[in-house]
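Hi everyone,

Forwarding the result from last night's run.
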Amino acid sequence: MQVKVAKTAGFCWGVRRTVDQLMDVAHERHTPVVTLGPIIHNPQFVARTLEMGVGTVERVSEVEAGTTVVVRTHGAVKPELDAARERGLEVVDGTCPYVKYPQAMAQRLTAQGYHLVIVGDPNHAEVKGVVSYGHGPCTVVRPGADIPPIEAKKVAVIAQTTCIGADFERVVGALALRHKEVRAVNTICADTDERQTDARELAAEVDAVVVVGGKNSANTRHLAEICKGIQPRTWHVETEEELQPEWFQDCALVGVSAGASTPDWVIQGVAARLGAMQGGRA
């Protein structure tokens, strides 16, 4: 059974930048190091950082004095960052620059009097962080969900960086018919768009698809949804241990895609296990 790995599988530029920052801090500092939230949405990588002595906290109040705090790639809510600096903690900001863009737009647009609409998951760390930068009313619309009534003449729409373009377009179009002024700012990461395009092309030419990455990773889940819409034989796994030979019965070519927070060594493990299978037999 042949295996084809998508061109853009694995760490995106922003995640690699954050990971490199964390590794530099962990190896060079002689003080305790923690990350504010999981550094990336990949349990296997987070487990490795824990083995290195890097802990994870959800709130600055949990951090002991003298500890270096590394902000996760998805960013943090503004009050937590303010609290860290007020306490004099050393903060290494690992927020992806592409995530900083919707944070800045939330700040600017709400200051200009727009009711801000964010297309994304309200429970996701990135979206929570973006909301915290707003100076006025904000509504988060989950992709595919109904858009609630908004009592405002001026509405601005941005998106979670991993949002699917069609979901953003749907919300913008619907709001344009309801309000006098709608300003849309496309904050979807270009890497996300490229990765989703690659996944579509891959799914169309293979007999099955395996999408590799954390089950808590939004961009990985979106890749799996996209692939499954094209190739029903699509599975989302975190490691090669989850692969089942019967999934690939009579498959000649299997595609592998991976989320932006999936380490190379995890992808390689999945590809190697698939390559050792013989069309549905281990």
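Residues 2-10+191-276 form a domain with the Cobalt-precorrin-4 Transmethylase; domain 1 fold (CATH 3.40.1010.20).

Cheers,
N.
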